[in-house]
Amino acid sequence: MCGVLEGYAPGYARDAISMMAGRSAPDRAEFVLPLLTTDSRVLDVGCGPGSITVGLRPAAWVLGVDTEPGQIALARAAAQHLSTVDFLAASVYHLPLPDSSVDVAFSHALFEHLARPADALAELRRVVRPGGSIALSTSDWSRAKLRPRTGNVEAALRGHFLLRKRSGGDPFAGRRLAENVEQAGFQVARMRTRHRPDMTYRQLAEYVEVRLIAALQEPGADREQLASAARSAWAWARGRDGDFAQHWTEILATR
């Protein structure tokens, strides 16, 4: 397995970086852009390489935060000529901002990775001013569209979901997002669900395969299930092509 990973991962890494860099505000943050004015102070949590963050205009000030310093470096390089956009390495659980200092807090593809969504929402509520808004977009794998959805696809995805849960995330976070937001003290103003083609069917198969192979290099339980899932992902990635569209829940809520 190790040899396969070493020969395969670099190509996947390039594809993953390319896909993340291709995300833009008009597509991923379309539902929040009408809220932004030339006076808005905006926070983008889990900003990645900043390709969405730089499009959160006409805001007067935008701060992108991400836990990965490498992502922050990429984001700063992309926004070096934008004086109203800045980036910091920080956690959603401990934001480097004063209370009530933000008009709008936005996140895309973050909450499905969080072990403590209630704590993250409490921290967003702290930094968003009274009357301000949060805008969250979160995936729900239970409603993703995959065709064909063969036995190998199902088995590989079960392994993928197991890895997400082992790391503290929730692959089905989108279906609980509205409830979590309301329990945190926000008032949901708008909720929308949509399907979007984030990556191709084959790219998803390759992504799942690489993650499962990498997990098998580490000690831990569930090795038999992960090995079986990796074999299924291998077959899926080399089978006939198909269609994939991820399901997203988008929520606007006020403090």
Report on this model:
- With 255 residues, the protein is α/β, with parallel strands linked by helices.
- The chain has a single domain (2-254), classed as 3-Layer(aba) Sandwich (Rossmann fold).
- The chain is built from 8 helices and 8 strands, in the order H-H-E-E-H-E-E-H-E-E-H-H-E-H-H-E.
- It has helices at 2-21, 25-28, 69-78, 117-127, 151-166, 177-183, 201-216, 223-237; strands at residues 41-45, 61-66, 85-89, 102-108, 128-139, 145-147, 187-196, 243-254.
- Strands 1, 2, 3, 4, 5, 6, 7 and 8 form an 8-stranded mixed beta sheet that branches.
- Helix 7 runs antiparallel to helix 8.
- The N and C termini lie far apart (49 Å).
- 40% of the residues are buried.
Tell me the helix content. 25-40%
- Helix count? 8
Number of strands: 8
CATH topology value: Rossmann fold
Listing every helix as H and every strand as E from the N terminus to the C terminus, the arrangement reads HHEEHEEHEEHHEHHE
Properties at a glance:
255 residues, alpha/beta, Rossmann fold, eight-stranded mixed β-sheet, 8 helices, 39% helix, elongated
What's this, in brief?
This protein is of the alpha/beta class and about 260 residues long. The chain has one domain (about 1-255): Rossmann fold, CATH 3.40.50.
Give the SSE map.
Elements: H1 2-21, H2 25-28, E1 41-45, E2 61-66, H3 69-78, E3 85-89, E4 102-108, H4 117-127, E5 128-139, E6 145-147, H5 151-166, H6 177-183, E7 187-196, H7 201-216, H8 223-237, E8 243-254
Parallel strand pairs: 1-2, 1-4, 2-3, 4-5
Antiparallel strand pairs: 5-8, 6-8, 7-8
